[in-house]
Amino acid sequence: MSLNGVSSLAGADHFSNARSKKLLPSALKTSIEMKTQNQYIKDLKEHYQQHHEAIVDTITYALKHASVSRSGIHFNSPMELSKFLETTHLFIPKSHWRAATQYLDSSIKKSEWLDALKGIKTYKERKPSGRSKKAQGAVRLELVHPSSRMNNESKTKQSSPLLLHLFHMMGIMMMNLNSGDETAS
């Protein structure tokens, strides 16, 4: 795909403003990351026809809410997180995720967040101060690095560029197809 094709995708609101100038996230460095990506793509292909709309919505959300400075996808709604996990569970097991929670202890939606995060390892990234008022809460969802998962290294917080790499590639392929469909009709 030409550079113009990628930048037109960025201009078409498929990517967050912070990511719009970047062509690709960092490359996958290890063979285990590449193998894991291939497995995710294989599983995605099995479910794509039946869950096409939900998968496209999930890709769009991931691309628009990807963190540039940190690995992961940002959520400020437990409902959005639940919807995202329900769809990605078709091709990414819940055990592959880790969630960095922000201000959940003082969240007015704490029980909804906890329900959405069932089955996912969490750690507190930002804690409320003792005098803070009730907050919405937020979560940054990360993909645990495959080598950390394999070695059962739950203490390390190593994440992988695999998450953004996977969604970016799917976005380029699928969003371009969808854009072409709209112009053809």
Would you kindly provide a written description of the structure presented here, covering whatever features stand out?
The chain contains seven helices and four strands; from the N terminus they run αααβαβαββαα. It has 185 residues and is of the alpha+beta class. 46% of the residues lie in helices and 11% in strands. Strands 1-4-2-3 form a four-stranded mixed beta sheet, with helices on one face. The two termini are 22 Å apart. The radius of gyration is 17 Å and the shape is globular. It has helices at 3-11, 31-48, 52-64, 78-88, 110-116, 146-150, 162-184; strands spanning 73-75, 97-102, 121-126, 138-143. Helix 3 (52-64) packs across helix 7 and helix 4 packs parallel to helix 5.
Topology, pairings included?
Blueprint: H1 3-11, H2 31-48, H3 52-64, E1 73-75, H4 78-88, E2 97-102, H5 110-116, E3 121-126, E4 138-143, H6 146-150, H7 162-184
Parallel strand pairs: 2-3
Antiparallel strand pairs: 1-4, 2-4
Helix pairs in contact: 3-4, 3-7, 4-5
Count every beta strand, where a strand is a DSSP E run of 2 or more residues: 4
The strand line-up of the biggest sheet is 1-4-2-3
- Structural class by secondary-structure content: alpha+beta
User: H/E element string?
Assistant: HHHEHEHEEHH
Q: Considering DSSP H and I runs of 4 or more, what fraction of the residues is helical?
A: 40-55%
Helix tally?
7
| Major beta-sheet overview | 4 strands, mixed
- Give the N-to-C terminal Cα separation: 22 Å
